[in-house]
Amino acid sequence: MEEVSKENPAVKLRAFRAIDEPKTCELFVKGHEYVLTSIGVTKVSSSKNEWTINPSVFVLTVESLNGKIVYGGARVHVAGGTQPLPIEQAVGMLDSKIYKLVLEYNKSGTGELCGLWHSREIMSYGIGSIFLIRAAVAISNTIGIQSLFALCAPYTIKPGESVGMEFETSVGNNGTFYYPKLDLIATAMILKDVPTLSKASEEDKAAIISIRKKPKVNRIEELRMKKIAIHYDLEIPHLEKWDLMESISNANNAIFR
After folding, report:
1. By mean pLDDT, which of 22-31, 41-50, 90-99, 109-118 is the weakest?
2. Which CATH number fits domain 10-252: 3.40.50.300, 3.40.630.30, 3.60.10.10, 3.40.50.2000?
3. How buried is 62 (Cβ within 10 angstroms: 0-12 exposed, 13-18 middle, 19+ buried)?
4. How far is CA 56 from the centre of its chain?
């Protein structure tokens, strides 16, 4: 994979609905699979990649400026699509209470931040964690959902808390599960107030609100004394075709629970 320029590092961070860009989704899948394989994970609940044709999935990608290389990404799944949420698929057999919990939050629209990954080319810039997570929270508000689940690896707990996520201790072993394999621990978390972000840090809340107000903007971001230009393009194309109320209704009537 082509390196990000060390002299003038710059990437594009954009959002789109999965069903609108099958080719970009394919690049996302290949990159994510490569990263998972590198840490010994060969099978996860979404490994069949049905999400690529799920009308309730929104994708974030970190790309080269010409759009030919995908360096990382994340997804926001809205409850009520053509699949259960990934957290339901991942831990439902271990603790069925997750289904009732998702249904409760979905009364006002809920979803899940998942599939977060980044290649080594952007690892040191923080894009694969905090900047992608902020962007996911920003588009969740645009989509209209009020809450956002996540099944966090240890390294994403802190940035999750920074954007206002809380531990969901009512499921699993006080919120934890052995996932995606027995020597790895995942923690259930939830952002309960996507619009207001009452528990987010001031810095993250300000950054997310700024992105909401200007979803298409170029910014120099800095983390650990390293700067990178991020060309944000978070205006989701064809959003007028999206119907949150339909997804909420579908989730309430779902037959897969």
Report:
1. 41-50
2. 3.40.630.30
3. buried
4. 13
* pLDDT at res. 190: 98
> Are β-strands 10-17 and 226-233 bridged in parallel, bridged antiparallel, or unpaired?
parallel
pLDDT of residue 188: 96
pLDDT band with cut points at 50, 70 and 90 for residue 150: very high
The pLDDT mean for the chain works out to 89
Higher pLDDT, 98 or 256: 98
Angle (CA) 157 159 226, round 5° = 135
pTM for the structure as a whole: 0.91
